[in-house]
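Weekly modeling sync, notes
Attendees: AB, CL, MP (scribe)

Item 1: holo prediction request
CL wants a bound-state model with glutathione before deciding which constructs to order. AB pointed out that an apo prediction alone won't tell us much about the pocket. Agreed to run with the ligand included and paste results into these notes for async review.

Input as submitted:
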Amino acid sequence: MLKLSIFKWVPDIVQGYQRDLRIRWALAEAGFQYEVMPKAISELKTPDYRKLQPFGQIPAFQDGDLTLFESGAILLHLAAKPGARIDLTGSEGLSKVTEWVVAALNSIEPFVMNMYEIELFHANEPWAEMKRPQMANMLNYRLKDLEAYLGDRSTLLKTFSVADIVMADILRGVENYGYLKRYPNLQRYLKACLARQSFKDSYDAQMAVYKLNEPSEKEKQRQMAAASPKAD
Ligand SMILES: N[C@@H](CCC(=O)N[C@@H](CS)C(=O)NCC(=O)O)C(=O)O
């Protein structure tokens, strides 16, 4: 059985954007059945859970005796796994899809995460206002090149792959803040990716868990305080 760790619940502003979604999406495209392992935020930092995910994060994944963490590694494992309904390597083999998964995670996601810090997590801090132009410039520097690469393609490789899943999942975060406005190719590409039924089903599946486990207002405050990163 395939098993995927997910959050039991997260605050409204980040619901629908947790990284188990990209794994759910690939599993749905492949037609693989799986079970979820819902975790409270406090459970993630326990020694037991860190055996699955050393950084105490979601997603973690189990495929029989094999355990995996890092969403990119899990996606590549699924792309290589026999029995999928479609070829999730993009019909160009594992090396090429690895290239684009790494590009999404290494050349695009860090710049997108910077914008989350500015637009979402620290929107009211004076430094966010000051850093926005520089961080937006860095993001645009990458998006401009991705726009040129894409041209009128609807997939990064020959056919839809796990690279499109992770790239689209990353891009949709900054689309919300208007950062794709000047990139028609990216907008068209993202729209096509998100129109897939497997995305919609995965999004709904993630949201359904949060609805089911919605805590009291008091508990929400407690969990939000506990979720702030603290190094010691
Ligand atoms: N590089 C990791 C990042 C995982 C990650 O940031 N997970 C978030 C949720 S989407 C998390 O667990 N955050 C809680 C924490 O970092 O303590 C991956 O792609 O799997």
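Recorded for review: The beta strands are 2-7, 34-39, 60-63, 66-69.
Action items: CL to compare against the apo run; MP to circulate these notes.
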